[in-house]
Specification:
330 residues; 18 strands; alpha/beta; single chain; 10 helices
Length: 330
């Protein structure tokens, strides 16, 4: 019988109602009591490194999770992480970079309603996550939610209340789980031993452009961050002209150890700065990186991982464009 480690971290799935609303108040063993058939499927151990609303997540929590996985890795066949939905996509992306090429599945799940509610989605999500963690075809970091298996770097929460909260952005789901049966579409290759990375540089700022935004804001972002992600319009356009002054700000920070990534605030299909003058001119002039079809969550956490290990411009570029867990498509 396979052995799975349940890592409980809080979130809605573990919440109970209080005077100020829902708050995580349940441990992993209590959650398993609501899905007793899981204990007949495998041997389960439980750890709880923290118990928080995922709104309060920080990069230090990701380091703790990766450390737990590294310490326990050789003793288990798979891992299920119960997590709040609000930042689950960030955590899944972060772990994709911090635990790379894992031949064992690392499954994140949660719910839109607490597990003790009659109409909850938590029980089926938790059961499905264990089923996928036990599958011989599963590997690497994924989110299992509402019957979808999503690569850890492709997930985004698109709905605040509906049970089908997550979508796989511009990439097929790896599998569906229906009535306890896994329908696998994409098998992630198993590549020997995993690589663990426990250093992050959390000074990554994401600035979303809005009409009329002043260049002083961008200057401030450069001042306080190692890397700035500039979320432009359409295919990655950045406003030109004296009114905005972005050109002068970006030029003033060249050669000062800062990394600039340009992406798009459009949800689907990614950036392509070569299409319009307001994109191509910037890319031709400055040594910037382009986000293409990386999600916000993947760009942010990938930069934290890269900058936690190197500040060399050439190495940063090489690692940024390296495909990790399906994060760059095409």
């Amino acid at each position: 019988m396979k052995k799975i480690l349940l890592i409980a971290t809080g979130g809605t799935i573990a919440s109970k109602s209080g005077d100020m609303g829902l708050k995580p108040d349940m441990g992993g063993a209590n959650m398993l009591d609501y899905v007793p058939e899981i204990r007949s499927l495998c041997l389960v151990d439980i750890v709880q490194p923290y118990n928080i609303d995922s709104t309060n997540i920080t990069p230090a929590h990701w380091v703790k999770l990766a450390s737990v996985l590294k310490e326990a890795y050789e003793h288990y066949d798979g891992f299920v992480i119960c997590h709040g939905t609000d930042t689950m996509a960030y955590t899944a992306a972060a772990l994709s970079y911090m635990v790379q090429h894992s031949p064992k599945p690392i499954v994140l799940t949660g719910s839109q309603k607490p597990i003790d509610k009659e109409d909850t989605d938590a029980r089926i999500n938790l059961r499905d996550s264990f089923l996928y963690a036990l599958s011989d075809d599963s590997a690497d970091v994924v989110i299992v939610f509402q019957g979808k298996v999503i690569a850890g770097t492709r997930a985004k929460k698109l709905r605040t209340k509906s049970y089908n909260a997550f979508e796989s952005m511009d990439f097929p789901v790896l599998a569906n789980i229906r009535d306890g049966r896994i329908i696998q579409y994409i098998k992630t290759p198993k590549q020997g031993k995993p690589e663990f990375f426990l250093e992050l540089d959390e000074k990554v700022g994401v600035l979303t452009l809005t009409p009329g935004l002043k260049a002083e804001v961008l200057d401030m972002f450069f001042r306080y961050n190692t890397a700035v992600v500039l979320s432009g319009y359409g295919t990655g356009g950045i406003p030109e002209g004296e009114y905005y002054g972005f050109y002068d700000v970006i030029q003033s920070w060249e050669g000062k150890g800062k990394t600039l990534v340009v992406t798009t605030q459009v949800q689907h299909e990614g950036s392509d700065m070569s299409v319009y003058q307001v994109g191509r001119g910037w890319k031709n002039r400055f040594d910037l990186l382009e986000g293409y079809n990386l999600t916000y969550e993947a760009i942010t956490t990938k930069l934290m991982w890269i900058l936690g290990h190197t500040k060399d411009d050439d190495k940063i570029k090489e690692l940024f464009y390296k495909n990790v867990n399906y994060d760059l498509i095409g």
